[in-house]
Fold this protein.
Amino acid sequence: MSQFTDISRINVCGGDGGAGCMSFRREAFVPKGGPDGGDGGRGGNVVIQADAQLSSLIDYRFKHHFRAERGTHGQGARRNGKSGEDLILKVPMGTVVRELDPETQTPMFEIADLVHDGERVVVAPGGAGGLGNTHFVTSVRRAPHSPAG
């Protein structure tokens, strides 16, 4: 009798957040319009979801690297960037998700045991979007160029 092994090692990475915009309002007859840079969008999460229709991890036999979508950058006129889409990786019910030690490839700890159909766990959260220059306005500094300057 042969043993059944259904193990897969994958690398996941959440999406990067978009950069905030540094922009100033420019309009006719409006001198010193002030900052109007929008925020960057959030990066997408990598989510592992149990699916009753699957019976093996064959989808992850040859493709091992997964990255969620990144958020878009903010724009002028206070337009915020679009958030990145979440990447959903479907696995069979009963899958145990573990984090491995990067050097020895031995399991460090168990993240989740997906036993119910539709059960989900976020394994790589996306990055936060950057702030536009409208967030750095104070009563003294009415036209900020950057958070540091």
User: Anything to note?
Assistant: The mean pLDDT is 87. The chain has no helices and seven strands. The first strand starts at residue 11 and ends at 13. The two ends are 70 Å apart (CA to CA).
